[in-house]
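QA checklist item 7 of 12: single-chain prediction sanity check.
[x] sequence parsed
[x] length recorded as 424
[x] structure emitted
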Amino acid sequence: MIEIMNIFGREILDSRGNPSIEVDVKLSNGVIGRASVPSGASTGEHEAVEKRDQDLMRYLGKGVKNVVKSINSEINEYLKGVSPLDQRKIDQRLIELDGTINKTRLGANGILGVSLAVSRAVSLNNRESLFRYLSEDDDFLMPTPLMNIINGGAHANNNLDFQEIMIMPVGACSFSEALRWGAEVFHHLKKILSDRSFSTAVGDEGGFSPEVKNLDEALGLVLKSIEISGRNLDNEIKIAVDAASSEFFNNNNYQIDQGSTILNTDQMIKMWEKLVSDYPLISIEDPLEENDFEGYQELTSSIGKKVQIVGDDLFATNNKRLEKGIKNNSANSILIKLNQIGTLTETIDTINLAKNSNYGTIISHRSGETEDTYIADLSVALKAGQIKAGSLSRSERLCKYNQLLRIEEELGSKAIYNGSNILK
């Protein structure tokens, strides 16, 4: 009977050079499972709490030494000698030890690191791939990627209010082909930007951050790059947008185009209706601010049969908020971020609730990422159908895609690509 012998946390740096948490869980037979935790820039108010030291003499207050101390002392002592085989019991013990609603005492970043490291230790102990250990059956689904190729908002130093413009290779016959299509579009876009004297510097998630005037100009550049790549917009590559609308929602209005355009909720909904009519949009994330369930209901009623209306800040990977959305028919899909809720089993419960309610599920990275590829395995194991891992540059993004290539290779003929099934 194996037991947890030791839990050790350390302070590492994420892709933005800010401190994050890495955790090693050592089992009684010597097996060590390791996991690291990402961090968001545009965080919703309903997320579990990411705890920081607030010591301005270290990392501008963003250090996580206190979280590390809690892992190495309190959590370590609490879970030492416990069987790692019951993940739900482990996570429940962590939640009870913290004792707060939003994991404010120990920090969701510390709790999540331990939760994920335990699961990885058991998968290594079982000598099976992580995605197989996390799955409840022997059926798997390779996700359709949402590839971020133009950054704006909180993820880039430009004037584009909307946070991400993404491409979705829905018409590919395999994940590896989808990845190739995305990379080709990305490189064609780089040449277009260079030829037009735009900057080809990239933002936090690896997408380009040109000084475009507005969303229409950005979308035009993306469409041109798809066309030059030889792909069509009818059934091969579609467009997705993450608005992160709460970031530019002020005084009950949406202020876009550097504040020159001010829209109320009805006008914002009409703007989305027009964009869906004018462009091959298939997915819109956070189109309205994070507490407007009624606005989401109206927008979903209007265009929800044509496009995916994705709640990120709206739901915060939280079952209670998702239940409210389901009851009100607000949105039809949910973005899943492990660190928004703070444990593996709570994340799985939210995914299952969404799938059982006919909501789409998208496993997502954060803007401050690590080299950990956990979300790639999770997306396949739970048959989420979609993954949002960033652009086709920066190794902390590409490592997720490369892990999916390995999984596809391991699955062989069982590697079914979700493709255009996202609206089903």
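[x] summary fact logged: The longest strand covers residues 4-13.
[ ] second reviewer sign-off
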